[in-house]
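Posting this for the archive.
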Amino acid sequence: MESLLDENFGAVKAKHSSEEALQRWRGLVGLEKLRVAVLVSKAAIQFLKGVQPSDYVVPQEVKAAGFDICGDELGSLVEGRDPKKLEYHGGVAGIADKLSTSTTTGLSTDGDLLNHRQEIFGINKFTESQPRSFWVYVWEALQDMTLMILGVCAFVSLIVGLATEGWPKGAHDGLGIVASILLVVFVTAISDYRQSLQFRDLDKEKKKISIQVTRNGYRQKMSIYDLLPGDIVHLSIGDQVPADGLFVSGFSVVIDESSLTGESEPVMVTAEHPFLLSGTKVQDGSCKMMITTVGMRTQWGKLMATLSEGGDDETPLQVKLNGVATIIGKIGLFFAIVTFAVLVQKMFSRKLLEGTQWSWCGDDALEMLEYFAIAVTIVVVAVPEGLPLAVTLSLAFAMKKMMNDKALVRHLAACETMGSATTICSDKTGTLTTNHMTVVKACICMNIKEVSKSGNTSSLCSEIPDATVKLLLQSIFNNTGGEVVVNKEGKREILGSPTETALLEFGLSLGGDFHTERNAAELVKVEPFNSTKKRMGVVLQLPNGGLRAHCKGASEIILAACDKVVNSDGEVVPLDEASVNHLKVTIDQFAGEALRTLCLAYVELENGFSADNPIPLSGYTCIGIVGIKDPVRPGVRESVALCHSAGVTVRMVTGDNINTAKAIARECGILTDGGIAIEGPDFREKSLEELHELIPKIQVMARSSPLDKHTLVKHLRTTFGEVVAVTGDGTNDAPALHEADIGLAMGIAGTEVAKESADVIILDDNFSTIVTVAKWGRSVYVNIQKFVQFQLTVNVVALIVNFSSACLTGSAPLTAVQLLWVNMIMDTLGALALATEPPNDELMKRQPVGRRGNFISNVMWRNILGQSLYQFLVIWFLQSSGKAIFGLDGSGSDLVLNTLIFNSFVFCQAL
């Protein structure tokens, strides 16, 4: 039996079985490389054809609508980031003129121009797949193998019943089977449909996003879905770019494009490099942008259109259950054929003895049909008709409980897939860590102090001279691109890049007041952070009339610009060799602990300094060095240890640098002595043979691209037969989420494309929640195993009773409808009892089932056969002595009662 089961459903297919769909997905993983390749190809074709930007001709319908540029030209302009094409069109001002808009007053809503604009350029909405109707879920529920077998039996039973007994008596069995099928189908469909509605409602709430826009000269709030090309949008720190567009004006704008391209390095947007892409985020600064491309014409929209292709395949448990149903169906069919053959042989033998073998009448034909009906009953008896209902109830119960545990299950069957997982490829930022940078160590006045724990900042403040504290707060609150504001709810909120936020929080914890410090001195000059110089600086006009410059940046660079330092007494002293070595050792120590270090310094300026002069690059006094870190989430180390004890390998895949990744991985317990940490560029250079040797040992992959992550997941699944779970939050993670057996998208930091590609959404972005999902998945698997054992025990006995009785007496004591409805009642009760058993800690002490694990173990088979034999003997005893004990006459209805009595006994045992 085991060999048959393994042969039929031992290997689990990919979540998307279509090779064509998989190839499309794999082609998407190098999004940025693909984009560059396409642009290079276009440039080459243009060169060969002699086509220049000046050859662009405005379509007639666009001109008639009042515009001098079309949507496709605008799309290629921004997507290609082509400065020559932008220059040809007259720069940002020229594009504004061609779009009939103003960079100062925005669009005019007068007349029909707004409607024409919408008709020509489209709206800022993505084409979404139509929500599936309830009947689609009904159709999908009907695809269950068990229900298909029962459907065939129902059809045959109806035909035979009507032919032998007529209407309505002959239709009882067939209609009874149909009713049981409909019961299971509608329970499954209703559960799936309700879950889809829940996700849709949640999705609608998340899409209610407003943004500041200038129209008709007035700044106003608008939904991002009402934006049109030519709109002037105001962006600030933390905002998501709502459409493709061009930078108009602003201050130190840094854009995080990692969600779209996978590149962790932020991009500076300036008048010289004015291109802004939909779906990216403003990491620092503020600006005005002019919308050029909306909706499906944006790069984000094109990506979403491609990612929506493909369909889902079956999960490991679904494959195994279908295999069980198939094998049992074959066994039932075998016994049915044998039964029919035995009954027909008896009929021929009887006619041979009577000498009527050559004389056939209508009664003989009806008798043959009755034998056929008995054979159909044998098949119905063998099939575990309650199995789909039990699976649905178990998954629905788990899904509801998982929602309480901060996990939204998008696909019902994904509940159990995570329970079979053998490896988890996890992001670092936001999943293993809090995604909230914090100052955890500081070296102020040459003394190193821990500042991550509550109360430490107050003790640190008491150990620093007051003058140094004031100097430190002046540096933190003035030399920053962030801001401290009060939101609508009256709560204090810190805006800025993660690094700026960490420093501002540190300053506030030291007792500083942002607005007081900002108002105490006049800002004379600002030099924003420069990625080349790796520093930023400001010049302040002090209340006493003096000028002071503050700078901060990469520790090694700022320290090299210092010739003095504030010592432990708060005095400014020359920076000697011993002090320099002490500070350099401190920087190395902080870096070794995965801390991002910043050095703060100041210099007193002469009164002759002008705002036109550059801020000095040397002569500074070092105030101190701070170590900033994205702390590991509470409970992550314990959760990783729990995964290891459960036989699940956890791997970190991140775009961060390898030293930070290794330090965080060690802190989480992911990187062990025998594990390997590798960078993406090194990984992609390995040959297939090297990868085969390397991949099982990889525990950390840093500086990884979307291609690297996709390749790793693909090899783990296909080459090593792992059941892979992948976490992700960016658009660039979508291919890996799609390739994995189960995709886990982050609910807070995750993009819409990532969520659409995922099976489960982790609402709190916490790795501990992922472990909870795994625990629930294992619970579902075990509960369904228990139910299958309970179900098969009953069915094996019923099969033996009907088969032996049919062969010996020529009639089946249990009709299809009788046994079907008894089983449906018993199965429902059994499912409710077994399927709703919550997970326990023992589940995470077992090894995962994996892709080829046996669904029905040898122990289970022994239990099934042992209990079946015991139950058969009891039923036989009840049948033979029923008249003496219960006053029964051994008829079919009495046997149903006897079976029900014993099933109740077995059910109590199961409980």
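The chain has 34 helices and 26 strands. The longest helix spans residues 767-809.
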